[in-house]
Amino acid sequence: MSLLTFVLLFIFALYIYHYGQTDRAAPADVIIVLGAGTRPSGAPSPSHKRRIEHAAALYQKGIAPYVLCTGGVTANHPNSEAEACVQTLQGMGVPASAILREDNSRSTEENALEAQKVMLTHNLQTAVLVSDNYHLWRAEMLFRVRGITVYPSPAQVTTGTLYWRTAVQNTFRELVATGWYFFKSLLGLPVTDL
Question: What is the distance between the alpha carbons of residues 71 and 79, in angstroms, rounded to a whole number?
Fold first, then answer.
């Protein structure tokens, strides 16, 4: 890999990281919570719980009348990510009538596809997209490719030594995932769970 390629990837990684630091939440039709795994007990993972808590806070502020929980079943876990989200939101006082769900997706790209179906069914046009900060650039891109107007809102903006190590790892993962998306799009490959 040439030095120029490395520098360009580094700049792109910084852009992805910094993009997710700004909360762009605005009044919308729905708040979409992107799944982030469940524990073997069926409870949301720590990252998923942060996203759910952030979505509940946005709902309580009146940003949108609905919250859409996304995510299918992960390996060897009893509940889908969406089910864990629904249960947690209800435990936080969000009424069942305000919660929508899709249980089929296994990737961010599938989140966008399946969320679009739910939004069309309920005549919803705009969404606040909730995820971790490092994930928002790619997630927003995938939702916009589907024609969904989204306002990204990070569930986690923090600092610290451990945070920086995780942030570097996750931002690198986003570089790889973005590269994979563009590569498979050029080849005309279908939506995947990778």
Answer: 10
> Is the predicted pLDDT of residue 87 greater than 60, yes or no?
yes
DSSP state of 189: P
**Chain position carrying tokens 């399946």:** 114
Whole-model pTM: value is 0.84
Query: Could you state, in order of their start, the residue ranges of all structural domains in the chain?
Result: 16-185
| Residue in 74, 153, 148 with CA at minimum distance from that of residue 117 | 148
DSSP H helices, 20-135, are: 46-60, 81-91, 108-121
Residues in the chain: 194
Q: How far is CA 63 from CA 27, 30, 51, 83, 192, in A?
A: 5, 8, 15, 22, 31
The Cα 135–Cα 132 span in angstroms is 5
Angle between helices 108-121 and 136-145 (to 10 degrees): 50
| Residue 121 or residue 194, greater confidence | 121
CATH number of 16-185: 3.40.50.620
Q: Are 58 and 12 in contact (CB under 8 A)?
A: no
Residue 37: band (very low, low, confident or very high) from pLDDT cuts 50, 70, 90 = confident
CA 84 to chain centre: 15
